[in-house]
């Protein structure tokens, strides 16, 4: 789908709670704040360093470019907001995942970030690099739910995990961004019913 | 889904090619140009009238408000760009529809309109009224494909047409707006295969 985010994730090199980890977190938080305040186009290593009270050299040492920095900041943020569950049940995992997606997308911060990205993407083609890196990683993480479902026999062997996740989340984004129809957990459950064989309730298609 | 666009479509009252119909068309074209140039928030009856060289009173007589005017202008435009086919085959109709959607969404004008709407929607909550009116009408038109498929026995009785159309087009919008993955007709065909029972090719899920 996309190139790996970066070589050697510095999160792994950083002692949790150490000074370097704290600076890292301040930088990633500053990136999200800059995105919310000024958008992708105006974001720069200089502005992020100033906001995070970090040295510019630290940023240049840790991130190859703006795309990598932004993708990592968004992953850190969405990783906290939308954890990938592992309950032992495909349907339950999908429910928890979609419900977290809805909660995040319904929050002012989640909406603002999404709209800023989409709006900027019309003017800044390079934004696609950050978007693809971010989503490739999110799809890999969420895809684990589908893979475990296949292993347990809840989904047919050969199920395309990325395509499954696309069909799971895309109706939510369509309603939120395009048709302005309401999204709720009942709607998410309906999508899950349509995607999962052996429906517990009568299919509605 | 949403209130009907307006009482008594003036398109029907207007003699095609007549002076009044020409003014109507100039107004609707001016609305799209204004949206592209300045966005929804700044659009006004005054600006549209000036651009279309029409009287403001004409606009106030024909449209109840900005939301109705914008929804009708977008419907006129997308009606030309994305006709609803009726070939006698569900799969062929869905193919033609999605391929037209992809062509329109890939055009600079289609993309600019969509991004401007999404970006403005964060700041202008009333935009949801225009979006819902537009999409309710587009879903009704496209839903005819699904209804004919049910009548011909190509889809099960009781198929929810709006939910079917949502699952048909949402993966395209997800890729275009959110994940920045490429969309092409092969991808559309894959979505159709996943939605239609009795697949001609082996299902990929």
Automatic annotation (TrEMBL), chains A, B:
<dbReference type="InterPro" id="IPR036271">
    <property type="entry name" value="Tet_transcr_reg_TetR-rel_C_sf"/>
</dbReference>
<dbReference type="Pfam" id="PF16859">
    <property type="entry name" value="TetR_C_11"/>
</dbReference>
<dbReference type="InterPro" id="IPR050109">
    <property type="entry name" value="HTH-type_TetR-like_transc_reg"/>
</dbReference>
<protein>
    <submittedName>
        <fullName>TetR/AcrR family transcriptional regulator</fullName>
    </submittedName>
</protein>
<dbReference type="Pfam" id="PF00440">
    <property type="entry name" value="TetR_N"/>
</dbReference>
<feature type="domain" description="HTH tetR-type">
    <location>
        <begin position="21"/>
        <end position="81"/>
    </location>
</feature>
<dbReference type="InterPro" id="IPR011075">
    <property type="entry name" value="TetR_C"/>
</dbReference>
<dbReference type="InterPro" id="IPR001647">
    <property type="entry name" value="HTH_TetR"/>
</dbReference>
<feature type="DNA-binding region" description="H-T-H motif">
    <location>
        <begin position="44"/>
        <end position="63"/>
    </location>
</feature>
<keyword id="KW-0238">DNA-binding</keyword>
<dbReference type="InterPro" id="IPR009057">
    <property type="entry name" value="Homeodomain-like_sf"/>
</dbReference>
<keyword id="KW-0805">Transcription regulation</keyword>
<keyword id="KW-0804">Transcription</keyword>
